[in-house]
Design brief:
Keywords: DNA-binding. By secondary structure, this protein is an alpha+beta fold. The chain contains seven helices and six strands.
């Protein structure tokens, strides 16, 4: 089944991990340099990869600087966080260098939305609603069309790559099971 990436950033802040990393504010793309330096974008990307988790300072430092950590990593990360907040809003990143950082509650991530659609597809399928299952699976598949972060191989991006592969399998399976039933229900 061929799909085409479908994204609906809508209001608020929306981050895309499938394909090249993308940032939208109220449906309008915020292009790379406007988000900040490469380090600031890496920080935001890492937080999107781990959207539901508090990311410890050590992991942020490793992702942003690799083996070349600055002398004062906490202060440097705090500066990056301040710069991202200045551009995208104070609500985009929560936390501090003591406890770690995470995306703010209102920030949406494409993989999280895809996971919700896939879960809906499976629930509709098990609930005997194959037409709704097909629709939800197609929406999930549309968000999953492409490689995570344009093929980024960094270890910190691995959780997103693994989740993407799992969601893709589940969405395809739900679609494959639901489509014939939906056709049979509405010949």
């Amino acid at each position: 089944m061929a799909t085409q990436r479908t994204e609906n950033p809508g209001p608020g802040l929306w981050l895309g991990l499938v394909g090249d990393f993308r940032v939208y504010r109220d449906g309008v793309p915020v292009h790379g340099p406007k988000v900040g330096s490469l380090k600031a974008r890496t920080l935001l990307t890492l937080l999107a990869v781990r959207w539901a988790q508090l990311v410890p300072l050590e992991l942020v430092v490793e992702a942003v600087w690799g083996g070349q950590a600055p002398r004062q990593p906490g202060e440097n990360v705090a500066t990056l966080v301040s710069r991202v907040r200045a551009v995208l809003g104070s609500e985009v990143i929560e936390g501090s260098r003591i406890g770690g950082y995470r995306l703010g509650e209102g920030v949406r991530v494409d993989l999280a939305e895809a996971a919700a659609f896939v879960g809906q597809a499976e629930a509709y399928l098990s609930g005997g609603q194959p037409g709704a299952a097909v629709a939800a699976a197609v929406r999930g598949l549309g968000l999953l069309d492409g490689a995570v972060l344009g093929g980024e191989e960094a270890e910190w991006a691995r959780p997103a790559r693994v989740l993407h592969a799992q969601l893709l399998r589940r969405a395809r399976r739900a679609h494959a099971e639901a489509a014939p039933r939906a056709v049979a229900d509405h010949p």
